[in-house]
## 1
Amino acid sequence: MLTVRIEALNLASGDQFLDIGCGEGRHCHAVQMLTQAQAIGVDLDEPSLELARQRAQEVDSNGPLAQFQSADASALPFADGSFDAAICSEVLEHVPDTASLIAEAARVLRPGAIFAVTVPRVWPERICWKLASGPGGYSDQPGGHIRIVDPKTLCKEIEGQGFRFMSSHHAHALHTPYWWLKTAFWSRRDDHPLVRAWHRLLVWDMMEKPALTRVLERLLNPLMGKSVAMYFERL
């Protein structure tokens, strides 16, 4: 499930790509499969990194093997101007210091590099917070969402760190009702029949890619896409 459009990163053979907060490495694996760039993912969750390393070995690759390492996004272990593109997908809603992360991304990207950032869309996210509010709720989970990110404010913050805004789009409209169901039935979010049924639909959609749901999601994304993706150029 890709939130960033890999083709928008303009990756060429031999380019260096960085995924900040890579989790289990889904975007790195896509870069590994679809381009000839070197993908590097960083995260602080070692179990996720280990799974990403295992999957990298299994990917039918067009490019070099994706690499993964533990690193703090606010103090990246790379030299200035090391990367030709970077992404930070569904991360900024989790971290307390977004300014340091953005500054580090600016530091390790060369001029002209693409930086893609994705965050949850505001109004679907607000519904999730309201449906499962209070102690132990949606916004009160270890490592969970600690803020609702306003894209306009975030865009200005990123531009202030030496980037030019290029474009944006929304993604994952079919995932929005799934999260509303999960938060509506928060005490049974993993085993409620409606949640399980919608999850099966999403898995089927991702694996089979039927034309009907692909067209439906494309039409619904501008209205209710769960995530907003923004693309910037490093000045």
## 2
Amino acid sequence: MPNDNTAHIVVVDDELSMRELLELMLTREGYDVTCAASGGEAVGLLDKVQADLLLCDIRLGDMTGLDVLRQWKKKQPYTVVIMISAYASTETAVEAMNEGAFDYVPKPFDIEEVKETIANALNRKTIAAEKQALDDELQKTLHFGRIVGNTPRMHQIYKMIRQVAKTDTNVLITGESGTGKELVARAIHMESNRRDRAFVAINCGGIPETLMESELFGHKKGSFTGATQDKKGLFEDGHRGTIFLDEIGELSLPIQVKLLRAVQDKVIKPVGGNDEIPVDIRIISATNKNLEKEVISGQFREDLFYRLNVIEIKVPPLRERKADIRALAQHFLEKYTKKMGKEVSKISAYAIDMLNKYDFPGNVRELENLMERSVALASTNILLPDSLALSIHKNRWIEGIKGRRFDLDEVANGVALDNILEEIEREYLKRALQVSRGNKQAAAELLGISYRSFRHRLDKLAVDKEE
């Protein structure tokens, strides 16, 4: 796709066929291209050409690509540099990026992949600019404690938080598991006039039904077996503060009846007690269920639903705010490097690209767990695609082969094992391509095989033709 503002790219490779391929491809994309056949020739262009991007092979005849990188960055520090090589090890890639390279592309590479990498690199311009932009982005996005996000959907939530925080109106926060509903509740509390009082978080799905009433409202000594003394409930502990009822849809109907009185009249009665206790509380609830459907099915009281749902805040899933993934990933990277005492300072562009191509069914919580695991396993100071602990998610991405279940009892009647294995392999290849949105390098990494092996399997099973 041609560029509106033509960028100048310098290609350095000692293989004529590779130079010609890259020059043709980049020219068709609308870039101005200058080629150099050696490191010395590339260095000689420093006083003649102002490059927006340098695409340089790591292995050159007269000098290394790293030497070219260092000299180019010294004289033209704002040029974005991408290294390419069939021999690049993880250590070499890390060294190149520590010297200022934006990223590296291993040979053999996919043309579309290279185009995408170059486009991403030019959008950022330099590593320094990228780091500064990210720092600025994080400063802008940490609006309320640990909430990170700068997409329009998140700004709408921030606006809602500011509007409702100064009131005592009950709020219902809805969204999938792992989206950060409790963070929104805590943000409302911290922005409110109750910030100096207790924030009591109650997991309604984590307390046994037989203990729920006692946990919420307390009990009197002797009210049931094991009640050896009076006990305050969580509602009383939250007096003058905020009560956060997480997973409110898990409450049983009998408990909902008792909760309605507390929400409506702001009074509670301990188990076994006769006197009502007034409580001054702000109620914030959260659920990943559709409570309106629960009301229709008779699983949730309609009167309680309308008492809790005075104002609703919908937290979007991570797949609907993917522009926040980069800032979130960096936020968690910094959190866990500090916690573990490690020096992992950056996530490579390829690694971010892999994260963006994954839908994260577990939302922000899953991304945080992934980054924690990746930092723990990281052996370099930059997280490369191989460093990401994405393998723990493969079974979640590829669950079953089109829902088919293989019956091992069929073996007694004879089976065509090669055909079965080919079918399984074909479906895994196709699914990996779907998950990676056609990025064959990323698809190969998801399957734990080399790019060359992945291409061979595609050709053998005619997956590209079939698709």
